[in-house]
Design goal:
The chain is globular. Strand 16 and strand 17 (405-410) form a beta hairpin. The protein folds into 2 domains: 20-353, Alkaline Phosphatase, subunit A; 364-470, 2-Layer Sandwich (Arylsulfatase, C-terminal domain). It has helices spanning 2-19, 47-55, 69-78, 82-85, 119-125, 182-196, 219-226, 237-259, 295-298, 325-332, 349-353, 426-443, 467-470; strands spanning 22-28, 57-63, 129-134, 149-151, 168-170, 173-175, 202-207, 266-272, 299-305, 314-316, 320-321, 364-368, 372-373, 382-384, 387-392, 395-400, 405-410. The longest helix is centred in the middle third of the chain and has 23 residues, at 237-259. It is built from 13 helices and 17 strands. Strands 1, 2, 3, 4, 7, 8, 9, 10 and 11 form a 9-stranded mixed sheet that branches. A 4-stranded antiparallel sheet has the order 12-15-16-17, with helices on one face. A two-stranded antiparallel ribbon has the order 5-6.
Length: 471
């Protein structure tokens, strides 16, 4: 009798695991909102990702939880906003020249602390075999934070050694011979992982280094785009080639799922960690670029394909943000949330089932109490000075902490954020500011106020992050 019951229990467990959908999460680095064919680019080519968009649901108001790499990834993996884990930027928070900084910025935490239960750890506990392939950027070893397999992931934020071209040496990924391209190899490793684990539920986090700098393409693809007529917004042939290589990698993984008969039971997500690099691509019609709280720095291309749940070719316009992926995957995989662990986001499953549904929350938020130096003339000294932002419906408010300047935009009528309505609509500005202040209090978000004694007002060179750029 006991043996019979045990067999029934094992069969039930096996059926339960089989019913769990596989999860493939494509997380691209520095890909701008319009850098793909389905998002409007006429120069960059992305047929496999475009096909994924046709087969799944496209989110038009999808946001990274931070404007640059490490904090965006920390929010994604922890399911919490930056003030809770303290990862606000990449490396130090006092970037740029000291004489140009009015304030002493909040000290930055470089790695995601072990105390935070990552998305990988939660799914691992739920019966998933987990793998991260590519950029980790949250610590030295992702296998200590919920991943059974790590390929090429470490603390660094961009390709090391030879960059995208071999010879190179990454954790569990070494190529001594010349001629291999990192983006291709990561796709190959992802396909091997799927093949090896096809009989059990798996979570594949394919977090490409591409299309982050250095801008290094396969020569034959670069030549292709050099021969192609550029557009006003998109014209960098090497960057275009990098996008195509990324697209090929996505296509290889999706092809492997199809080959193995796994497509119908796999939830596929596609997202980017922050906006496009302003010195390489254009995020227009969005204002700004990577490292800024304007739309060009935080609004991302996003696709979700979940056969039987998402309607092919559907579009969702609800505001969603990076911290939402964690609770979404918990619900989609029927995985229990970590005990006594706070999640700031909301599950997107209601939207996946009905793109016109509404999430029950007041707003989404950003907090960036750090400086980021500029890298183009239009930036001036900084891409951004310490700032915070809130979006409620179509309304968005940005506060710059150096002088308390408020900027209010109606994104439904002004997607390019050209008309600051804070003075014309002071009531709305106050409403959003109070919501943001209450959120800061709740999350204990630090706001820098200490003057920098080394600041020299004569050195100021304002751009998009300064008053001239904010008009």
């Amino acid at each position: 009798m006991r043996i019979h019951c045990l067999l029934l229990l094992l069969c039930s467990l096996g059926a339960s695991l089989a019913a769990k959908p596989n999860v493939v999460f494509f997380f691209i680095d520095d890909m701008g909102w319009t850098d793909l064919g389905f998002m409007g680019s006429k120069y960059y080519e992305s047929p496999h990702i475009d096909k994924l968009a046709q087969e799944g649901m496209v989110f038009m108001n999808a946001y990274a939880a931070a404007p640059n790499c490490a904090p965006s990834r920390a929010c994604l993996m922890s399911g919490q906003y930056s003030p809770r884990h303290g990862v606000y930027t990449v490396a130090n928070s006092d970037r740029g020249s000291s004489k140009d900084r009015k304030l002493i910025p909040t000290k930055n935490t470089i790695h995601l602390a072990e105390e935070f239960v990552t998305m990988g750890e939660a799914l691992q506990a739920g019966g998933y075999v987990t793998a991260t392939m590519g950029k980790w950027h949250l610590g030295d070893d992702p296998t200590t934070q919920g991943f059974d397999v790590n390929v090429a992931g470490k603390a660094w934020g961009s390709p090391s050694g030879g960059g995208y071209h071999s010879p190179y040496k990454y954790p569990n990924l070494e190529q001594k011979e010349k001629g291999e391209y990192l983006t291709d190899r990561l796709g190959e490793e992802a396909c091997k992982f799927i093949e090896t684990n096809k009989e059990k539920p798996f979570f594949l986090y394919l977090t490409h280094y591409a299309v982050h700098t250095p801008i290094q393409a396969k020569p034959e693809l670069k030549k292709k785009y050099q021969a192609k007529k550029p557009t006003e917004r998109h014209k960098n042939a090497a960057y275009a080639a990098m996008i195509e290589s990324t697209d090929d990698s996505v296509g290889a993984v999706l092809g492997k799922l199809e080959e193995l008969g796994l497509s119908e039971n796999t939830l596929v997500l596609f997202f980017s960690d922050n906006g496009g690099h302003g010195g390489v691509t254009s995020n227009a019609p969005l204002r700004g670029s990577k490292g800024m709280l304007y739309e060009g720095g935080i609004r991302e291309p996003m696709i979700v394909k979940w056969p039987g749940v998402t309607k092919p070719g559907s579009v969702c316009r609800e505001n969603v943000i990076g911290v939402d992926f964690y609770p979404t995957l918990l619900e989609a995989t029927k995985t229990s949330a970590p005990k006594d662990y706070l999640l700031d986001g909301l599950s997107l499953v209601p939207l996946l089932e009905n793109p016109k549904a509404k999430l029950k929350r007041q707003a989404i938020y950003w907090h960036f109490p750090a400086y980021l130096q500029g890298y183009t003339a239009r930036h001036g000294n900084f891409r951004t000075t310490p700032a915070g932002a809130v979006r409620m419906g179509d309304w968005k408010l940005i506060e710059f902490f150096e002088d308390g300047t408020l900027e209010l935009y109606d994104t439904s009528k002004d997607i390019s954020e050209t008309k600051n309505l804070a003075k014309k609509m002071p009531g709305k500005a106050v409403e959003l500011h109070e919501i943001m202040l209450a959120w800061r209090k709740k999350t204990k978000a630090p706001v820098p106020t200490e003057p920098n004694p080394a600041y020299d007002p004569k050195s100021a060179k304002e751009g998009n992050a300064g008053k001239k750029g904010r008009k």
